[in-house]
Protein 1
Amino acid sequence: MPRLSVNLNKVALIRNSRGANYPDLVRVATDCEGFGAEGITIHPRPDQRHARYDDVFALRESVTTELNIEGYPTEKFLSVVLEAKPEQVTLVPDEPGQLTSDHGWDTVGRAEELRSIVGKLKDAGIRTSLFIDPVADLLEGALAVGTDRIEFYTGPYAQSFDEDPERAVASFAKASRYAAELGLGINAGHDLNLHNLSYFVGALPDLQEVSIGHALVTDSLYHGLSNTIQLYLQKIAEGSRR
Ligand code: PXP
């Protein structure tokens, strides 16, 4: 079954809005793990408007499941992750001021740069994942630069899910089969929620991890964090049985 990694950026955003350490990200991460989350993700951006670089070190001390750090590989980002050594680093091709991730890497055009960065991370014992769109050439490019895994950018799936779920998932299911054939590990994330998650999981039997933040934190306002994590785990289980 795919693991649920909870992305805590939106919790950090609430904390930052008041200046004090409340809510405390470490405490929330520990509670998420206690409630059943199988990983914790943060995405420190250069402006540190939600998760910050010092959160990476604090979470490294406390997370006992798996810590996944996402981000654009600036010098600062790389120095932080190489020192903190999370279990996984997901490289994302965001421009520094971008509101949220909205596309994957050009693994062919930027192969040289990616090969060098992936190599440094792997030498440090960190599993690597590249955020990408579900396209065969890009998967081949990902394999060629040496990454362990890819993370499918699922925004377009979520956007067209209501219109036609089968069509929305088709390119991801096909790319996932190909990624598995190539021997790449498969993660997914962005805009996954209680409504579209189980269908996605059911269509990608090789999926290893989903990272979910915005919808999960929003659902927690209604159901509480503990119940919400249970609901997401149930959706993953339901999808896996399909
Ligand atoms: N994966 C990546 C690379 C992301 O940038 C984000 C958002 O920070 C997510 C997954 C999670 O997306 P969402 O917050 O929509 O669940």
Protein 2
Amino acid sequence: MYRTHTCGELRIADSGRSVTLAGWVQKVRKLGGMTFIDLRDRYGITQLVVEADAPASLVETASTLGREYVLQVEGEVVERASKNSKMPTGDIEIKLASINILNKADTPPFTIEEDTDGGEDIRARYRYLDLRRPPLQRALALRHRLAHELRNYLDSHGFMEIETPYLIKSTPEGARDFVVPSRMNPGTFYALPQSPQTFKQLLMVAGYDRYFQIVRCFRDEDLRADRQPEFTQIDCEMSFVEQEDVLNMFEGMMRTMFKNALGVDIPDPLPRMSWYDAMDRYGSDKPDVRFGMEIHEISSLVKGCGFGVFDSAAYVGAIAVPGSADYTRKQLDEITEWVKRPQVGAKGLVYVKLNSDGSIKSSVDKFYSPEQLKAVADSIGASAGDLLLILCGDKRKTQNQLGVLRVEMGGRLGLRDPKVFAPLWIVDFPLFEWSEEDGRFYAMHHPFTAPKPEHLDWYYSDKKEDLERVCANAYDFVLNGTELGGGSIRIHNADMQKRMFEILGIGKEEAEYKFGFIINAFKFGAPPHGGLAFGFDRVCALFGGQETIRDYIAFPKNNQGRDVMIDSPSQIDDIQLEELHIAISK
Ligand code: ASP
């Protein structure tokens, strides 16, 4: 047996026991004639001691040890003279009788401790060393735990885990496909799934009425923000259900995960908000409702007073930033510059300070009396001490900018505590999005999403304004300003599916070529069905109180989509290219 205990296990009650431990050397310290060694494994750290009067060969071996050497040690558990209350094993140490060096190690390029001195790039290159660090081990342990919880929950509700293929044909999630050339079928390509969407629907046609899968999905997108080219979804589908059934089932799943993994109770039932409400009040379809500071339209109060900028705007909206009326000129200039950055895109910013002495100071004093500004403040429920920030322009665009500003101000005020969880459902999405640029409709979710039954007349209408009004039978699960999941009740009837392709401008032939198999399947008794998918990496990160998903993936890619550890993507040799019937043009 390599070890009798792990490095996180022994306590004062074990004093006097003879034990064998195995692990990595985190640190060696010499003190007088004694040598102290911190031995680490994924369960913790135990202090080892080689006494000054230990056999010479043992003292000698101890003096050769370096960081990350792999050891097997034998010794006796003894009470420490100076205890360390910060470590679970801090009351004891192991008085060593022998050290067996199982493997030597080169000096690692960064410290392998709770906090490290290694930069991101070097840690990515030596990911297996970074993974030895406790924060990453905790992250992966949480991921494992959550996967276990959700499997248990879904299994106990009759869901079957069924794998679907990776070498498929393009799926309609709206991103670019990764493709794989087929050697056996020259000139043709598989696409890697952006999601198992079509397969899970075919499983419903096949009668497997409760399906799930923890599955890798692939999307060839520019890796802005916190995205990975391959990521994991908790993908689910159910038959004979309506929206209500799906929401209940999966908020139950999230509730169980919150309770069992974090000991956190989330509201029962979860709040729901319509997409229109979310846009009007938060300027976002994934509102962070951990704090208020809602957006209010103030157009009717400020238009027609001679301030041309507002007069000519389609929409004027404001947020009231609590307790921030004491912002200095410099701070206000800085926020103004901030909203003008291309990422936010506002043209300018108007402020109104509701000073705590009751006076009002604004950047538009020339055009509005204090009474008028007070009326604006009252209309949005702002009070003395608050700072109003006002933007104007096109309605949705301005709401969106106010939403971004709101989240920024919430962050600056410390209102976005990662340990506070405010989940909710967003429902009643528009089914279509009109693109001015392309002069056509796009599916807001994907082309298998069903319209609300009460909007079917509009769905079959030829008028653009009718189609714009159609709501989807779709829903998103949002947590702390992040969309964690989403799905819909699907179309299960071939005619309705054909109409969808028609509205999206997907011609008969193209629809047949891309999705003929599913239209065909719908002719053979497709049951009503619906489902959703959660982004598992992001679920893990948010449960762990972090914003980035990278720590929750054992071997992630960097911002350029590269794995710098294995150096991929990389070139392949000419013979491989030839076999694949591929020539590199540049
Ligand atoms: N396939 C969808 C997605 O990846 C989720 C769903 O509709 O179930 O976003």
